[in-house]
């Protein structure tokens, strides 16, 4: 079980670490949005590239917290069902 937690933690943090690793080699202005004609129609700072990995990290943490809550709730339901049956 501990190996799964380590793998999950690495996968949660990996996008941010990878982006931070590539950040110094990026130009100051990067294309952020492309139009229907496949041309960049919005340019932004290279630091705006961090938004997507940070959203993935936050979503991963929320999902992890949700699984911890659900497993505790399931254990509590099992305990309560055993107490009511006997």
UniProtKB/TrEMBL annotation:
Pfam families: DUF1648. Keywords: Membrane, Transmembrane, Transmembrane helix. The chain crosses the membrane at residues 7-27, 47-66. Residues 10-56 form the DUF1648 domain. InterPro entries: DUF1648 (IPR012867). This is DUF1648 domain-containing protein. It comes from Amedibacterium intestinale.
């Amino acid at each position: 079980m501990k190996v799964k937690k380590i793998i999950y933690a690495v996968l949660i943090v990996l996008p941010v670490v990878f982006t931070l690793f590539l950040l110094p080699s990026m130009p100051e202005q990067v294309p952020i949005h492309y139009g229907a004609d496949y041309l960049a129609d919005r340019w932004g700072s290279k630091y705006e590239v961090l938004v997507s990995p940070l959203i993935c990290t936050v979503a991963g943490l929320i999902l992890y917290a949700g699984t911890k809550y659900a497993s505790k709730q399931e254990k509590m339901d099992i305990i309560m069902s055993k107490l009511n049956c006997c």
